[in-house]
Amino acid sequence: MSQPVARPADRVFLEIFQLRKEFAGPAGPVPVVDGFDLRVAKGELIALIGHSGCGKSTVLSIVAGLQTATHGDVILDGRPVTGPGPDRGVVFQAPCLLPWMTAYENVMLGVNHVFSHATRQERQQIATYYLSVVGLADSMHKRPGELSGGMRQRVGIARAFALSPKMLLLDEPFGMLDSLTRLELQEVLLELWGRDQRTALIVTHDVDEALFLADRVVMMTNGPHARVGDVLDVPFDRPRIRAEVLEHSEYYRAREHLIGFLAHHDRGRTTEAA
């Protein structure tokens, strides 16, 4: 299942072209990612999967502008990415909240910066709205230390959406949570995303999560020299209901395809290690 060319009705919103990222090694530079190409249409939600260390988070960090590429280009909405900016909302595995501020104040920090032209009441409404949508209406004035891990991640998601970014970048946002909380927050993410369908890229190691959330699943080969190895078009209609996805005639075929790709590359990694 090779990557399809963007359909004529789609507008390419994110283009990653011949991306290469080197890190220093004992014997010289090591190209962790090399020749990574990807085009994402406006409004797509893309899941990026692969084995640990293959460079998934590196690619996301370069798109976020938090790292610079050794070679290649990242074009977002017609402009090259040269550094971080409010046009990209980032959600990390740990939400990185300021511990002395409440959940509301953490969200307002970004809202005040991005919407400095708005009135104070308008900015307050933005923060309150997104914290309520993620289920924190009764906890928004608590500090991070008073919130569970899942609640803190809800704050991180609310903060990212509240900035009204052109693109969302999520780096294993549910990886540190228990199974039940992870399933709940997947639903929260889809509900928020479905309101305006912002272009999104999510890094995950969870095959089922990728299939439930994404329009396409991009599979990375192992590093060094990691690149796009395969792309799966997810066949489920939106909006998605988890029970219906699990009962879909194509679900297990798609799941087996992803697991087969990862297993094949796991064997290759084991052989190289030996």
Would you write up a description of this structure?
The protein is an alpha/beta fold and 274 residues long. It has a domain at 1-87 and 200-274: P-loop containing nucleotide triphosphate hydrolases (Rossmann fold). Helices cover 38% and strands 24% of the residues. The protein has a six-stranded mixed sheet with strand order 6-7-8-3-9-10, with helices on both faces. It has a four-stranded antiparallel sheet with strand order 2-1-4-5, with helices on one face. The chain is globular and about 50 Å long.
Helix content estimate:
25-40%
Return the average pLDDT rounded to an integer.
Answer: 91
Could you name the CATH homologous superfamily of the domain at 1-87 and 200-274? P-loop containing nucleotide triphosphate hydrolases
Structural classification: alpha/beta
What is the level 1 CATH name of the domain at 1-87 and 200-274?
A: Alpha Beta
Largest sheet: 6 strands, mixed
Described by the principal axes of the CA atoms, the overall outline is globular
In percent, how much strand structure appears in the residues?
Answer: 15-25%
Which architecture of the domain at 1-87 and 200-274 does the CATH hierarchy give at level 2? 3-Layer(aba) Sandwich
Query: Counting H and I runs of at least 4 residues, what is the number of helices?
Result: 8
**Number of DSSP strand runs:** 10
Q: What does the radius of gyration come to?
A: 19 Å
Compressed to H and E, one letter per element, the order equals EEEHEEEHHHEHEHEEHH
Q: Order the strands across the largest sheet as they lie in space.
A: 6-7-8-3-9-10
